[in-house]
Amino acid sequence: MKTSRFEDLSEQVYKALREMILKNELVPGQKLVQEALSERLGISRTPLLAAFSKLEKEMLVELVPRRGAFVKRLSPKELVELYEIRLRLEPLGASEAATRMDQAGEKMLRDVLEVHRQAVEGGVASEIRLADYRFHMAIVEIADNSVLERILSSFSIVSKSNQSGLMKPRDKSLSEHEALFRALAGKDPARAERLMYEHLLEARDAAAKLATNGVVEYTGY
Q: 66 FRET partner, CA 20 to 30 A, in 109, 157, 208, 218?
């Protein structure tokens, strides 16, 4: 079937909104005002509504009857549950990536890590979030598991967009990514799996403390 121009445009809008949510340009609980977004993106409402529908399926947008579309706000319990899923799936992705690592994969991951390093040095929160996300997704891409990639792509964005105040110190997160890179480049599946689990476990535990007693573990960025 030939792809229509409308389908191309709705996909572009979907990707643009996803990135805006990831970078916290659109924040959890915020109403997505169709007129403002249409003007900002230079589009009509039709592809915008198509993008809303797709984002709802990924838990990134909530459509409320008679009220409109909102960026999905997770409860503390939902955030913990999301991390529980990532804790089971992302270490698997890291292990598979280490097994499948080749020169092209190592170069791609090294380049993504360098972008993350530069973002941390620059100190712009939105760029740090984006670079962090792309590092995680590069690992899943190297793992060459399309189902895992589809699941983690949206789960990673929705968890990051909802963890304001729970993000690790940027230098610590970068250091852990560097250790992950060394394990992956060294083709060490067991170490890569363990490091990814530990990397996510700390954030899960911080979210769990918030869910149980309102304690925020990290200073957000």
A: 157
Q: How far is CA 177 from the centre of its chain?
A: 15
Give DSSP secondary structure letters for the chain: -PPPHHHHHHHHHHHHHHHHHHTTSS-TT-B--HHHHHHHHT--HHHHHHHHHHHHHTTSEEEETTTEEEE----HHHHHHHHHHHHHHHHHHHHHHHHH--HHHHHHHHHHHHHHHHHHHHT-HHHHHHHHHHHHHHHHHHHT-HHHHHHHHHHHHHHHHT-TTTPPPHHHHHHHHHHHHHHHHTT-HHHHHHHHHHHHHHHHHHHHHHHHH----S---
Q: What is the value of pTM for the model shown?
A: 0.84
Where is mean pLDDT largest: 3-17, 107-121, 200-214? 107-121
CA 31/CA 54 separation, integer angstroms: 17
Q: Token pair 């109403």 is at which residue?
A: 31
